[in-house]
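Minutes, methods subgroup
Present: GH (chair), OT, SY

1. OT presented the first of two proteins processed in the latest run. Sequence and structure tokens recorded below as shown on screen.
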Amino acid sequence: MNKKTRFILWPVLIILGSEQRREREIRSLQRSYWNRDFAFALAGYFFLFMSVTVFYLLPLYLDQFHPSKSRVGVIMGIHSVTAIIVRPFLGRVVDARGGRKMALLGIVGMIAVMPAFHLVRDAGTLVLLLRAAMGAGWGVALTATIAACSDLAPLDRLAHSIGIIGIGGILAGAAGPMLAEELVRRFGSGALFNASLIFLCAGLVCMIATREMPRPENGTAARPGFQFGGHTLLTLAVIGAMPAVHGAIRGSVVNFIALFGASAGFGRIGPFFLSFSTAAILTRFGIGDISDRYGRKKVIFPTAILIGLNLFWIAGLRNYGTFLLNGFIAGLGQGLIFPALSTYMIDFLGRENKGLALGLYLSLFDLGMGLGSPFFGWVSDLGGYRTMYVAAGALLLIASVAFHLKAPRLEARSPDPSAGN
């Protein structure tokens, strides 16, 4: 080939080489989690979660203004309610365009709101509005970041990959409250807001560094709407209720465990979250693919029963050591139920609608968080924290039995690699 011919064909060769690299990237992503972009995206997910988990101690900051427990529940829960509002169409956008751009948009929105928390002087309208605005950014950023991470993971281990992704949130769930306790003790409550802002900026940098991976061009498109395969309204209600109840129960633990621990004289609450997170991480690495191998319902039902019984145990705790052990058992349950239940929703709606299914699951979960926090705060106002946890455990047990009886059994299956994500 002479020089003139090489010069003419050079652009073509560049294009062909680029396409070959795209194909190699796609094949490598189907084999392994550990690639540059997955690492950056997972780090972005971790920092995003850290920015939120330091706010688990916001109720202690608000306590100086002497609000009712139900008011604290409303302030904490509005974050989830506004996240729900922004999600209905987000899943479709993520399925069509990928998660990275939407993740950046959500994180930037949260960064813009954070400095205003320094102006909070009571438990009134301002803090409620700020929590609502943070929730809107969180609703966009969380769904899009999970979708972006899962696009970079193997296609045949969906539940396992979501579980691995969730470890970033679990680590943040342990580190965030402990860090927040130390910052507030040393520097005052303003450090809480500064730390959250720093973590958001770190998450933004990580997502900017993440490349949007190419997707196979195979003509597979997301279905144009919800298709439920002829299931009855009761069945759909039961399926939708399970993540909502899970969210309500999660809210009863996350938003009130600090106040419960203080009322029981347990001192530091951070070790509870550390124990919880350690167990959840061990579960994800040890048996994180169990629902991929044996089916979603075979994991969801016994795990939900375990969590419900553990809530009854919280209600009777008097000793700090058993308090930490309870956190460990709760973490085991959370480590199994989140990937199994979220992947059940993906299997139910179809793998080509992954973004839509994740958005729906997270919306239902946040609906539970948003409604459950004020409801359980009201129960606590009436009967105390121990009564609240008994009620939470009973609700989860009822929902679990209904799900087990009415939800269809979906076989754990590996998608055809040619079908894309």
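2. SY then presented the second protein from the same run.
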Amino acid sequence: MKKKRKPGYFTLLALSILWVLGALLTIMPAPMMYRECMLGYKAHCTLTPISTVTCVVLAGVTCLVQTRLFIERS
């Protein structure tokens, strides 16, 4: 079974990679921040568990759309 990728596949791939990188960025410690996140340490985002889960879910949805709509199976 050969798979053919439609135009837009690599755009969604780049978007899902950006979502994962965003999730990783939200949990990284940042001592220069003036407020602690919900987990009790100073991170890049003060809503760290919520924003991390949101980014991971959005990456998953993007991958799901990418595989369902932008790959033709022959």
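Chair's summary of item 2: The mean pLDDT is 92.
Next meeting: continue with the remaining queue.
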